[in-house]
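Tutorial, part two.
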Amino acid sequence: AALFPALASAQQDSTAAKPAQQQPMSVEQFDQEMAKAQENLKRMQEQMSQIQKATEPAQRQKLMQEHQAMMQQGMHMMNGMWDGGMMGCCAGGMMGGHMMGGHMMGWGQMGGHYSQMTPEQMRQHQYMMDRYMGMQQMMMDQMMQHQQHMGTSPR
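Running the prediction step on this input gives:
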């Protein structure tokens, strides 16, 4: 059983059959997508603040449902960035392609991809990974807050 079943289904939807090789996303495209994801995260944070202040159970339930829908949208956006070519190699599959045959991809699978990058491509890739991982951490924080508020009653 998944900790966040609705989010698991959102990920499954976003990892449907995709081409095995894609062109990497440009930094400009990535920044545009990241700006959308950041705006989505800001709305999630505002929703969580409203959830914490809600006193009526029906209002709180409605806000929780809206927050969950927003988290699903955020996960879909994040998966789109990953699967959309940020890695520039193995899109598709579980979690954007870093699970192959049930094990994590290691240097043996990714080494050829990285060794073909120019220094500028490596710099761009690192920039995108750094920003993506930060956003992923903030998404996890929202999920954890949501989980904490699922079983609590209004204050």
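The longest strand covers residues 99-100. In part three we will examine how such features are distributed along the chain.
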